[in-house]
Amino acid sequence: MLVNITPEEAQQQILNHSRLLSEEQLPLLEAANRISSREIIADTNLPPYAQSAVDGYALAEKPANGKDTYWLNGYLKANDNTLVPIQEGQAVGVFTGGNIPLETWAVVPHERTITNNNHMQVTEIIKAGNNIKKVGEDYAQGDQLVARASLLTPAHLSLLAAYGQKNVVVYRKPQIAVLSLSGNVVPVDMIPAPGQIRDSNGPLLGALIQKDGGTVVSMQTSFGKTRLELKRWALSILDQIDVMVVIGGTYAATDNEARLLMEEIGAKILYWGVDIQPGSHTGASLLDSRLIIGLSGNPAACAVGYQLFVAPALRAMQGLSPYPKYLTAICSNGFPKKTGSRRFVRGQADWNENGLQVTVLPGQKPSMIRSLFNCNALIDLPAGSPPVEAGSNVSILWLDSTF
Amino acid sequence: MLVNITPEEAQQQILNHSRLLSEEQLPLLEAANRISSREIIADTNLPPYAQSAVDGYALAEKPANGKDTYWLNGYLKANDNTLVPIQEGQAVGVFTGGNIPLETWAVVPHERTITNNNHMQVTEIIKAGNNIKKVGEDYAQGDQLVARASLLTPAHLSLLAAYGQKNVVVYRKPQIAVLSLSGNVVPVDMIPAPGQIRDSNGPLLGALIQKDGGTVVSMQTSFGKTRLELKRWALSILDQIDVMVVIGGTYAATDNEARLLMEEIGAKILYWGVDIQPGSHTGASLLDSRLIIGLSGNPAACAVGYQLFVAPALRAMQGLSPYPKYLTAICSNGFPKKTGSRRFVRGQADWNENGLQVTVLPGQKPSMIRSLFNCNALIDLPAGSPPVEAGSNVSILWLDSTF
């Protein structure tokens, strides 16, 4: 009897071999949702010159006699020379975001003035610096604009554009191949005979991989392929990928096809058998520094295994913290079964005024797809737990979004 | 003096002209995060045949004498005929997800048996139906698999694959053109002179549009283009787009370039001027049933205007509920200013054990980009509000993610 390792031990084995990916440079809009591979520091102030915050008039310092009447000396347009200081008693028309003369004391909005020919009267109390955007008031030279390993948001892209960057350097996307190996799995466009099922795991993992920043290079089922053909496919795709995910073919009783395939192509087994329900018959191996991660073929087991073993690798390869986030939640409806092995129950977690609640979702058999709907949390029940009573605290692994 | 309308009135004008888009059919993996345009109903049961939930043995009904010893009559493989009923006193080897003989009473896992030649003894108490996946136990014929106007998640795609669907019909992506019209905005690869700024709004909106399911067909600045060239561009792009967003050029004092452009190309103005801070100088128009939405050019005003006016249109066009979600939150740090016009303050909202908290973010001047970082909520302060004290309740517009 093999001794199963803990999911944390399995995760650590996988992370030991999840190498940071190389960089690529992308145009700003293509970099949305990618991970910056470099810290970016402001090389200038933003704004680099003082600007007007409103449409109105730049004013010279208030004259000693306190008069609020100025001589209106024209309007500044973009590109007009602003290195000429404003003269005592003068006002100059300016516009929002536009330049202002050197030594401008304050700007007054046009709706707070009365102009009469070239004379302008200010009808509001104005203080020094009013309506002037100061040099560097948004970002100062030397400020951090983007931290290394940041998920690039619209705000990042906007700020990089303001700093004149048309491109940004990010980690390249992890390249993934997916193989459904179960003997009873047929491609999606076939009608399954009794005892056969269609490959629902491939599209599940494909969509999850895309969501976590990866690219699906190839997605196959073993249906109709000889073992030789499968080995050829695995070896031929190896140079194009970072991770291969092998689903199913991990039966305990008969041949373990997943492990056999890994061994026959020369992969070194990292571990086999993890103390979890669902999906204990899983393992991982390494071939030519590429990770091959096996997942159990039952849909819920495949989904749980993805979050525990594949998603952390994808995050680590892109420079993100690989570890899932654990929180404590109140289980609103309980779970009626005793737990033998450590069990990951699919739940829907929501904050409300009473704190974080999690509801056990319907359809918890490993063979069912139903529990994946609305699932944004895995309830982590320790081995040997009694049934969970409604209202008791449970530990949940918080997923960033639903399956 | 023009009377400004409320943001809700402006939103309603825009939604009146946000027509549901046509459909397109996509392969499953390309449909991730798209919106289904049709309800999909299960045309069969899932599983369609009873299956074994474990690797083990299908058993005939327990004999009257209560004996737990069976005659092992071979193993079933995929495609073996299972329409032959199991005989009294017999056991047949089966595997996880595989077929089981007709009239199977229960399945016992192989690790709970002792086999001796062709005799098999069950070492565990087994009840009728144990370890059998019943016909339709995951989804029954007639169940709803996908509701119309659902955001397609990995779980949806998995379920559709299980039902043999290689493709799915979704609303096509809204096609958007973005024009930065401010006279002092230069393209991102230019060095701004005093009074000029780079176009940071284009990339901001482009990334937000992509996130909300749209495609940016064209992104332009008016820099170096004559008014005639801008009109030609606007008219030439019209047939390819659903919405045009015009940023800036909405000065109150001088020519309103945005409105002028809309009028000169023959668009009918829907409204102009909205009672909000930042971004009151905004409007919208309609040309040949296409929406043209103007946004204020200050970065924060542009961002707020996007969430109030553009995002609802994109959601409505894809069949989603257009309205932003309002919640009540405790403002953890307060806001020191009185509010003249209704004001949308950028905040970071987080649930914790004390409920929903929102923090006013630094850099609240409309000209600043800084307040967009970590912003996942807009605090909606009514016109004429006093300063917000720390710890008081505020109404927030909850954004699905940060800017």
TrEMBL record, chains A, B:
One of its GO terms (cellular component) is cytosol. CDD domains: MoeA. Its cofactor is Mg(2+). Pfam families: MoCF_biosynth, MoeA_C, MoeA_N. It is an enzyme of class 2 (transferase). It catalyses: adenylyl-molybdopterin + molybdate = Mo-molybdopterin + AMP + H(+). Keywords: Magnesium, Metal-binding, Molybdenum, Molybdenum cofactor biosynthesis, Transferase. GO terms for biological process: Mo-molybdopterin cofactor biosynthetic process. SMART domains: MoCF_biosynth. GO terms for molecular function: metal ion binding; molybdopterin molybdotransferase activity. Pathway: Cofactor biosynthesis; molybdopterin biosynthesis. InterPro entries: MoaB/Mog-like_dom_sf, MoaB/Mog_dom, MoeA-like, MoeA_C_domain_IV, MoeA_C_domain_IV_sf, MoeA_linker/N, MoeA_linker/N_sf. Residues 177-316 form the MoaB/Mog domain. Belongs to the MoeA family. This is Molybdopterin molybdenumtransferase. It comes from Syntrophomonas zehnderi OL-4.
